[in-house]
Amino acid sequence: MPDESILSDDFVRELMNVGDVDIVVGVPTYNDGRTVGQVVQAVRAGLLKHFPRERSVIINADGGSRDGTQDLVRAASISDLSVASDLHALRTLHCISTQYEGGPANGIAMHTILAATDLLQARACAIVSPESTTLEPGWIERLLRPVFRDGKEMVLPVYRRAKFDGLLIRNLVYPMAKTLYGCSVREPYPADFAFSGELGSHFLSQDIWNQEQGRRGTELWMTLWAVIGKCKLAQSFLGTKTRREDAPSDLVGAMRETAGTLFSSLDSYASVWHSTPEPVEAPCLGCEPSVGEEASRLNRKRLHDMFTFGVKELDPVFLSILSSPTHEELKRLAALPEDRFAYSGELWARTVYEFATAFHKAVIGRDHIVQALVPLFRGRAYTFLTDNRDSSVDEMERNTESLCQAFEQQKPHLIDLWDGGK
Amino acid sequence: MAAQDALWYKDAVIYQVHVRAFYDSSGDGNGDFRGLAQKLDYLQELGITAIWLMPFFPSPLRDDGYDIADYRSVNPTYGTLDDFKTFLEAAHQRGIRVIIEMVLNHTSDQHPWFQESRSSRNNPRRDWYVWSDTDTKYKGTRLIFLDTELSNWAWDPVSKQYYWHRFFSHQPDLNYDNPQVREEMWDIMKFWLSMGVDAFRLDAVPYLVEREGTNCENLPETHQIIKDLRAQIDREFPGRMLLAEANQWPTDLRAYFGNGDEFHMAFHFPLMPRMFMGLKLEDRKPITEILKQTPEIPEVCQWCLFLRNHDELTLEMVTDMERDYMYDEYAKEKAMRLNLGIRRRLAPLLDNDRRKIELMNGLLMSLPGTPIIYYGDEIGMGDNVNLGDRHGVRTPMQWDGGWNGGFSTADPEGLYSPLMLNPVYGYQAINVQSQKRFDHSLLSWMKRLIKIRRATPVLGRGSIQFLYPANHRVLAYTRKLGNETILAVNNLSSKAQAVELDLKTYKGNILIEMFGRNIFPRIGELPYLLTLAPYQFFWFRLRKI
Prior knowledge:
The structure holds two protein chains of two kinds.
Chain A: H1 9-18, E1 23-29, H2 36-50, E2 56-62, H3 69-74, E3 94-99, H4 106-119, E4 124-127, H5 137-150, E5 154-160, H6 167-181, E6 193-196, H7 197-205, H8 218-228, E7 233-240, H9 251-268, H10 270-274, E8 284-285, H11 300-313, H12 315-321, H13 324-335, H14 345-361, H15 366-387, H16 393-409, H17 411-419
Chain B: H1 8-11, E1 14-17, H2 19-22, H3 33-38, H4 40-46, E2 50-53, H5 81-93, E3 97-103, H6 112-119, E4 131-132, E5 153-156, E6 161-164, H7 179-195, E7 199-203, H8 220-236, E8 241-244, H9 250-254, E9 265-267, H10 271-281, H11 285-292, E10 302-306, E11 313-314, H12 320-330, E12 337-338, E13 341-342, H13 346-349, H14 354-366, E14 370-374, H15 432-436, H16 442-454, H17 457-461, E15 463-467, E16 474-481, E17 484-491, E18 497-501, E19 510-513, E20 519-522, E21 528-532, E22 537-543
Parallel strand pairs in B: 1-2, 1-14, 2-3, 3-7, 7-8, 8-9, 9-10, 10-14
Antiparallel strand pairs in B: 4-6, 5-6, 11-13, 12-13, 15-16, 16-17, 17-22, 18-21, 19-20, 19-22
């Protein structure tokens, strides 16, 4: 049974007025007033253009915004009370909003949207990020159509990104998910994606909503769950995804969401990754070259400095987490001048696996473990940027696949650590 | 008729019938006026207050009588002029008014006027029709019968000119720029009014006059012709009524009411498809939107509402997207489509779902306007899409389960139209006699509905105010006349619905459900919560006691 207590009485009243629907588009927000209006308008245009006959609702789950985010979402409603002259819609389109308790946390927002989707018996649900300012009406079609037309259970996005966007995905999430679960989708931690109502109900019925994955990294957890559950997946090319210039950079938060979720999943799915998983099929619909050629704006020297500083400062922590050879190798690296520094894929894979095992055994506080990975990731990011500075898109793809091979080669090390000694 | 109420048409419940389809008294396979007169008791019992007769004039019947060959007589198949007079008197004795068709725009090409007109270019009646040496005049005029006609001009090989026709090519348009034509048509109307006919339904009125550079519809000259006719009727036959058939948008239709000096009533064409659309979408938006766009009309005027009629369910007054939706939802088979519409009856359109049929009739009777019931829909008759043109919705009335469904004693092969025979809609399954036997039959329910409608003048004459509950599947409105207020709440959904209504204005009133007369809770400060079963509707009388 879904946990309906997540939904406030007022929100349930709104859902009652919406009634059963075919499509839910969920928009998790927190103080996104600068962008959410544009995004919701584009979603609405997409629904009107591509799904004019389907019963749809846009649901905003908000973490406590104080900048008018909720009003901007509600303003996109189409009803017989407020008819925009430039719109022609067969149906009423409700755009409703609720503030959930305990936020902001994307996982709670997701839980709220899933509960609403389940109650409304939607056939399909798309989640869109309020920061997806490049979202075009066609995105809605490309996310939802495979669910409606082809019976896909989950549709993940493929974006055209700047060359060095998504370093954490390339260096950690993608290779680890591919090696351990056979999941080779480009965006395993999606911002804009879709799933069937039935799969949404399965997500909802899992016992994670009071755990850490139910607060952050939930989208990644959903992808892994769908992959491991052998759901019918597809990827859909959406278009360009840009990062907001002024978007805050919270690497620790990102590490919690990604590494934290991945490490937790190893506990849940040990039997899966101990064997050799079948590669998961996720055909890409309309895919185009997905990496742009823009130069990196990241300050590599700063990455190197922060790695060096971190290795020195966190030495006692690493003693608890890492094996001696790995620890020694990292210290050796930290002593090297910048021009000779190279954090290899093999060493990085070993590092990550040792962190994952430490997380499993909770050798120290799990959140400390995840945080301690941050400076090391900066070192790895430095090397990745250096190695690929002049690479073509294809070369960078090959280098990413080489990293995956390194993770594959180190997998016995993970199994040894997991099942036996340090 | 008893003392005339000049606004009788506002309270009327109209029954549309084709003489040919109703009851055959002579056994020749065609319905006739004597037969219709024999069935007046049935109509009186049903509760209707007016009959609208489709054309019964002599005609080659290439357009079901809308191709008239003699305006002052009765098609011999249906009887004689005396038979008509007898029927008219019998109807009046039962308090039932009679509305007849008057096709002003065109005649049959078999009409003597046209035969004379085409006989030579010098014939005195040449100018009674619209002739041209070319087929290029009035280029801005749309084609109405898209499936059958290629042009509004047809070549006449006799006089070697083109003649103008807005409908079938065998229906040449009269030339209303000719004063003789106008005078003759008024004489014809006087002929019938003097006999006692209560009203005319004027067919195809927007098209009377043609002007270059226009779309030849709704022209000021056309309005002037209507004004002249109306003035003469008011002067010589007060209390008689004119009903416009003008398939136009409400804003264009508004002009046909003038300042209360053109038509008394006009069909609200755009509303009808939107009622079906709202039901299928389970969303009140199409209905409320079109009614919000409907302009105010003069106090003495009235809209005429209908669910189905003798024509296809016209989709001219909807957008392309809406039309596609309607076709996909209501006319999946190509044979169900005709021109820009759907040729089906009410019951098959609504999947023979009694709940939907009741809901739609409830809307018909409670939205602002005078309702029209198409013959046979009160028992849920079906259609035969295998018959050509619109004949599939004009099959014989089904009176009982016996020979020819009680319609005629002729051999079945001799009937003007095949009977409905299938096990769902055939006359043995759907007929008046069997439905009279049960209180819960559709016929019995329709009688109750009409009775309540007639006992509730506010439904005919009252203003409407929409409530906009947040639940868009529920269409709710109040009708108000003087101190009387009716609340109508309609669930357009196939699922049970809860709805909260803002009725603060009526705080302190008790709701009395009008079918069962049961009392519902008093209206208080809080939103009034109602739950409705799938497709259920309520009518409440508000009483402050």
